[in-house]
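User: Can you help me understand a structure? I only have the sequence.
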Amino acid sequence: MTVIVSAATAITPAPPGHIGSAISPEDALRYLGALGAWRDQRRAELDLLDETALNSPDSNSANSGSTTGLTGDVLLSMALWKAVADRHDLLMATWDSGRVGQAERERLSTLIWGRLDATLDPRLARRPDVPSSSGALAVSLPEAMRLSDALAASLRARLSLDPAEADVTSRVRQLRAQLERLRDRVAAEPPGTRDSVSRKLAMLDTRLGELVDKARRGADVGGLVGPFEADAARMERDLIVGSATRAEAAKDVTRAGELRAELEARGAAIRDLASRCVVAVDPAPRLAVPDVAALGPVPQTAAGVGAYLARLATVSRALNFAHASYARAMDEREELRGRLEAYAVKAAKTSGGGSTGHAGDSHPGGADDDLGELFRRARDVLDARPADMARARALVAAYQAYLASRSTQQETRGQRGTP
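Assistant: Let's start by predicting it. Here is the structure, written out as tokens:
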């Protein structure tokens, strides 16, 4: 049974300005009013579509793991509506009843034309007809609304929910405007896909012309408008998704190029650090420092650049590990040298002579030849290239132990009054 809907479908209003520009207060007020009306009208429409889809024999609501049938399309429509409604709230907060200056009007433009980044259900984000990046919508507010229009038109056609026949003239006028939008999008397609989508647009153009001619001759074209709306909506949806996907791929290509250049610089620096470490300490870490050049040039396709970014992330982790290992080995030698100097200063203060000599000079420990010999041996080992780290650790530990033992003896003699 065909159900007649008394209210016309919501149509996306033309957005004002462009990103980076300040919207005039008049345009902002007009757009926000139209956006609020679209939000309320689309919600009422989606409620009716949801109710009809639940009662449809084609609904796959029993299969909760699927998001490809009617139920999935309704869920996606609701998610798009929620993303638009949330952005509307932010716009209204920024608008603040018209109390806006230059900065606020620029922020309004950014909120309209910037990415929504609304988090999607993972099942919806994996759908091929959903432009998403890392589980979030990768479209602007107008594009999300166009997607919602397209999806609602498709659902109406599948559920036989059509506006009243008296609205045929208005619907044809909207279809003409939609074809013009499609024409603009087709012109922006890359050469590889432009020819095929141009042929689809030409077929739609021919069909619309035939539909209008029939209407002029007095024919009942109400049954033709719905399928045409669904086909036009599907094409617009595909073009929006394709454009958003290419934009994300282009950003990924740029990000991959920047990350590759960064990793090349880091890799060269870490290889220099590794060379100095091998000369400075023994044993030194023996780690292969990956060369990002081995990955080849940055791919230009969405699928290729995604895998390339994953490989770059692996290289980055390997560089981090190598950097930490070589830096730790170099830092240990400096840490041992610092400890030895600190112990030598302590030895000078407790020797009774009050000397504050430096560890680079002769040992400041006075007449204690054993302590001085330990100091000289530890210093010579640490100054050697490469430094024998195992021996250096042992000598510094022995120096510390000998110094502690001597301090204890001095304290004991002092308590007994022994000179």
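Now, to help you interpret it: Residues 66 and 72 are 7 Å apart (CA to CA). Residues 222-280 form the longest helix (59 residues). Let me know which part you'd like to focus on.
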